[in-house]
Amino acid sequence: MSLRRLFSVLLFLCGLVVLGGVPLYRGLSGSASLSYRFTLVDHTGLVRSEKDFAAPWKLVYFGFTSCPVICPTELQKMAQAYLRLPETQQRLIQPLFISVDPERDTPEVLSNYVDLFLPNLIGLTGTPAQSAAAQRSYGATSRKVFAEGDQRGEYTVDHTSFIYFLGPGNRLAAQFKPSDSAAFMARRIADILASSP
Ligand code: NI
Questions:
Q1: Torsion angle (degrees, nearest 10) of CA 12, 17, 19, 22
Q2: Ligand 1 (ion): which residues have CB within 5 A?
Q3: Alpha carbon distance 159, 142 (integer Å)
Q4: Does the predicted TM-score (pTM) go above 0.70?
Q5: Model pLDDT, residue 148
Q6: Taking a C-beta distance cutoff of 8 angstroms, is the pair 56, 168 a contact?
Q7: CA 21 to ligand 1 centroid distance, Å
């Protein structure tokens, strides 16, 4: 086999790997299929979708009100990051809390909870199917965990814990993890807003 021939065979094989790899990669990362949409009920009882907010940017966290530690910590952090921003930037952002425990988190339960963090934090709940659809569209997951031997049906909810920052067109601009500090989040959000037309 000449060198040139060998080269074209190798190119052909690489092409196969690349073509075969793209859909697989997309399937694994999942990001191509995430739409960041929802239809839910807010803590005042109004039906809301991702399009129903005046502010062009959103900060979104998924959790549940009876979560003992992680949800309050992350919501507190989201609130602190938001409050670190200049008021001109705050006005561009709608903070949202979406319940992964819609059966217990009624609008009334949510309305008492969101006030603990920010006056303009909106709580969102709905039917279990609506909550599940919202989670899927963000790539978030949750599952009920029942205490062993518990006869009362008490449960907690295991769930992914990310803070999503979305911009105009419902595009994901940043995704923060539990180890990111409020200061880091605020700097990143301020930078993104400053560099957006
Ligand atoms: Ni939690």
A1: -160
A2: 63, 67, 70-71
A3: 4
A4: yes
A5: 80
A6: yes
A7: 35
